[in-house]
Specification:
alpha+beta; four-stranded antiparallel beta sheet; 66 residues; 17% strand; DUF7675; DUF7675 domain-containing protein
Amino acid sequence: MEFYKNNPTDKIWWLETEAIGEWLFSFDKKTVFNMFRDYPHKLTPEQKEIFDEENPYWADFFKERQ
């Protein structure tokens, strides 16, 4: 598995995985979050703000969880 960024200026690292439908990301390459399981409940307010800014589609998709 390998970390990558969608854009060079992003703060979020995504984790390449072979599992279908698994979206893993990290802010520090140490703590890994599963987007469908952990967003937004396990993120700090600052992490959620960063995630929402960099991923407006997913922020809108999950807006009812907030």
